[in-house]
What does this fold into?
Amino acid sequence: MTQKGISTAAVHKVPTDLRKALISTPAARAAWEDITPLARNEWICWVTSGKKAETRNIRIEKALSKLKGGMRRPCCWGGCNHR
It folds into this structure.
């Protein structure tokens, strides 16, 4: 299932800012499409769990970098409690 050109997650919708960042970063997008919906869910929850806009933007950049580097789930994070 896709949401405006990007595969969706198990629980969360892909937020607009993350979707745009993934679409504009081909290597991160390819990794995104290769991970499971549950893994996508973890990335979305990790990005959106930041309380400040600055934190969220930093997390989006880190997510893109980590996905491009082959990381399939956020590291050192307790995980999404919405599973």
User: Anything to note?
Assistant: The chain has a mean pLDDT of 90. The radius of gyration is 11 Å.
